[in-house]
Every structure is written in structure tokens, then in C-alpha cells.
Amino acid sequence: MLEIDPRSPVAINDQIKAGLRGLVAKGLLRSGDQAPPIRSLAVALKVNPNTVARAFRELSLEGFLESRRGGGNHIAAGARRQAKNGLDELRCDLREAIEQSRRGGLAWPDIETVVERTRREEV
Amino acid sequence: MLEIDPRSPVAINDQIKAGLRGLVAKGLLRSGDQAPPIRSLAVALKVNPNTVARAFRELSLEGFLESRRGGGNHIAAGARRQAKNGLDELRCDLREAIEQSRRGGLAWPDIETVVERTRREEV
Amino acid sequence: MLEIDPRSPVAINDQIKAGLRGLVAKGLLRSGDQAPPIRSLAVALKVNPNTVARAFRELSLEGFLESRRGGGNHIAAGARRQAKNGLDELRCDLREAIEQSRRGGLAWPDIETVVERTRREEV
Amino acid sequence: MLEIDPRSPVAINDQIKAGLRGLVAKGLLRSGDQAPPIRSLAVALKVNPNTVARAFRELSLEGFLESRRGGGNHIAAGARRQAKNGLDELRCDLREAIEQSRRGGLAWPDIETVVERTRREEV
DNA sequence: GTGGTCTAGACCACC
DNA sequence: GTGGTCTAGACCACG
Fold it and tell me: pTM score > 0.85 for this model?
């Protein structure tokens, strides 16, 4: 469900945060649902538990997650709306990436081809 | 000729490298031409000369530039071909950025909107 | 493990790069192993951390090292093969040095004497 | 008679100085002979005249060349002996190059093979 | 004027 | 603890 690319320049904890927000944005996780336990997630992603913990802690500070008595992190009430705010950040990042391609000499048709291909190969 | 975005998360020296490769890819700079002197470029970009020097040195190691002490940096012979290969790398990076957006929950229509806007605002 | 000659005309960072490649070529360091931390190595070699960092960064760009923030630098997968190719480069450099001696008037017996002496004094 | 490698890391003026000393060491030029005119040499080597001039000036300071009234640089009296001293410097440089190869992981048999090959291909 | 190197010290971010 | 980046300023050497 959650995918991580350890070799990406993007920080792992950011990938985790983005991934969780994504699951909510797509409706695969809803308010009140339990987020995967830190340890299990760390094992599944082959990542240091501290890194997952950090991601969760930051999401908690943003009010996106809530830790309940009796254990477990749960998706907070306003999570969906927040996830949409997160989208703005994503749009911004994507825009930067595109501008970087432009500065590197990539032409617009090239860029659109890349978009097209990525879309097709995703399924 | 060369533009830099100091607020971008992309490292300045990498932006310079991409920029130079871009100029060659677009044909604005050709094999044998002299690249701008490190210090001048540093002043123009409002950047520390060391940063430019780093970029140039790395381009030299790649065989993209040839530098002679006291004689400036010159675009190497196979530079254009290399620049085209560099484009492949850019495409790859862009693709990763898009996939990253997807994992974060950005929908395809959103992505295409971002592409469109960036294109328009560029001029 | 790694030795540097600060009085050599060869740049320190290049010596570090060559040294690391050498350790891999000799099998003392293998794919996946962690390279010495930048700061520790800097202290050990009595060199500025920036210098080591430069060497490591360039080795990363070559795909010889993989560096993760906070996770140290690790010998990359294809490192050994690369190291062997690097040997070719060394042979080439050495050859140029010899030709340079020849152009300066050094006779062949002289050259072989130098080789012999260097070999003996090394231990 | 004199060969220069503009892409070598060795400074051009040093190559010129070494080359001249070499010609004397080999007996192709003798005390009292006229050294090639700066301009002609610069043209022949495709090098900046200033660079040749600098080399000649330094050789003059060392007492290896003498500029005579009426123009022209001539090989000085004690030139041959000096050329032999220059050989010591060459030996030292060569030694450094060999040590550098060693640090890079080149084995002794490899080194001797390189020496052998270079010797054969010279003729 | 040019490039090349190193040092020093600071800042940020990740694990 | 780790690496990454940038700035600042110095020094050297070539053309």
C-alpha cells in the first residue's frame, strides 16, 4: 500500500508523510481508521523505526494523526481537508521539478511526453 | 543567459551544471566556445565563486568542459552528445518527481494543470 | 588504512579518491561496507572535512559510493568493477608520467632504477 | 623535436623547460647553440608566446640560457651539467607518480608492465 | 586576467 | 551521530 524509494533524494520521512497523506486523499484511509503500527511499517518499508516515528510525530503535530489511549495512531478528524492542503505543497514541488527540467534544456514536448508515459505505465 | 533560483531546494551548483548543459543542448553554446569565467558568473548569479568553481570542476570531470589554468573553461568536444544523454537523466528525474506526486495523492488532472500553468507563466 | 601525502603535488581530494578506490580494488572494502565517516577520516588524515566531503561527493556522482543523509557513505554495488576500470586510468596516468620523463631527457636505465628504488623503499 | 601535450595536467611552461633540458641532456643541443626563437617555437607548439617567454626567462634565471646581444637565446656554458640536475627533479616526479599509482591500487607487476610497454612503443 | 586548491566556520537536515 | 551545502577568505600557479 505504501511505497518508498530509499535511493531517492527525497527524505525518507517525507516520503512516508506524503504516502500517508496520499492514502487519505485517495480515500483508502478515513478519519478514525488506525494507521499502521510504527514497528510493522518500519519492517515493511525496511526503514529505521526512528524515521517512521519521526514522520508520525510530525503528522501528529500537524493534527493529521492522533494517538489514542490504549495505543495506536489514528487518522484525525480533519485529516482529509489537511490532505488537500498537502496537495498544494505537492503541486509546488512538481512545479519546481518541471522548471528544473526546463533550465536543464528539456523542451515542452519532451516534458509532456514524459507525463504521458508515466501515466500509461502506472495503471 | 543563465538563470538560478536561490530559493529552490535544488542545490545551486547543480542548477549551474544543469543550466550550462542546457545552453549546450539548445545550441547556444558550442564545442570550443569559452564558458563564462568563474568569477564573472559568480558575480552575475550573486553566488560565491567557490560554488561556480565546484560546478565547473565537476563538469570537467565528466568531460563536458575542459579547463586550462589561466585559459578559461571551454566546452569539450563531445559536449553536445553528452548534453543529450543528460536530457535522458532529466526525463528520469522528472518522472520520479511525478511518481512522487502520485504517491502523495495528486490526481492526474491536477498534474496536467500544474504542467499547463508552469508552461504559461514561463513566457 | 588510508594514507595521504600532504606534500605531494597531487591534490589531496584526488589522493583520497584514489585511496578509496584502491581499498576496494584490493578487496579491503566491499560493496555494502560503510566508508569511514567524513569527519573521522578528516581527523585521521589531518585534513579539512570539506576536502574529504568533496572527494566523497565526487565518488558518489560516479556511482562508486552511495550516501544517505545521516546514514553514512556506503560502497556501491558495481564499485569493484569500477575500481578495476579505474586501474586502467591509473596505468594511463603512469604512462604519461613516464613519457614526460623521457621528454625531459631521462634515460630508460634511469627510469628502471627509480622504479626499483621506489619498490624497495615501500615495504 | 619538441613535443607538448596541451591537455596534460603538467603546466605547459614546465613541459617546455623540461623539453629544452631534455634536448641538451640527449646532446641534440650543445652549449653555444642557439635556442629556437620564442615566436617560432610558440607557433610550432601552438602556444601563447608569453608562455614560451616565461619558460625561457626562468631558464635564463637558472643560468641555463643566455640572451646575447644581437638577439637570440643561447644554451649557456654549464647547461649540460644543469640538465643533469634537472634529471634529479624528473626522477622525483616519476617517483611520486609511481607512489600515486600504488595508492590507487595498482600492483607492482602492473607497474612494470606499463614501463615495459611504454618502452617498446616508443622506438 | 584566468582556474585550482585548501581552510575555516556556519547552517540545515536526516537517522 | 551522520552527510550536504554554502560562504568567506586565503594561497598558488598559469597566460
Answer: yes
